[in-house]
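Q: I'm writing up a methods section and want to include an example of the input and output format. Could you take the sequence below and give the corresponding predicted structure tokens, formatted cleanly so I can copy it straight into the document?
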Amino acid sequence: MASRNVYLANRLREVLLNGKWIANTNFKEQILSIHWEQAIQKVDHLNTIAVLTFHINYYLGGLLNVFNGGNLEIRDKYSFDLPEIKSETDWMNLVNAFLLNAEKFAEKVEEMPDEIFDQPFVDEKYGSYLRNIEGVIEHSYYHLGQISLLKKMITGSA
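A: Here is the clean output for your methods example:
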């Protein structure tokens, strides 16, 4: 069996970048297959695809900052504060930032020594590194499901 770091990195890549096993899709596939107007299209009172993409990227970036020796500076209350998307360029900037952070995040996890996974993440109140990384995977699948449904509702595809 693969070590925890490789296993977790593979799970992250699966949901974020290139997997098909659990959800038969991934974030990258979903967000690269729509244009900016679809990404910002509102469906009732639900979040848009762009907002959900920003939301996951916000957490990836914040945790990456900690992985790189920085402080935990992100706050839940800001995690949906997407700057306005007014063009395809704005959308692709968000998509590219997401894809870059997703790969960097998986790479950092892959490089982690096994003993770090059971250590507290920043502060004991935040749980362990393992719990936070697993949380990113679960959180990403949750919002991937929402994005998949929103895309079907917007495009009319089954």
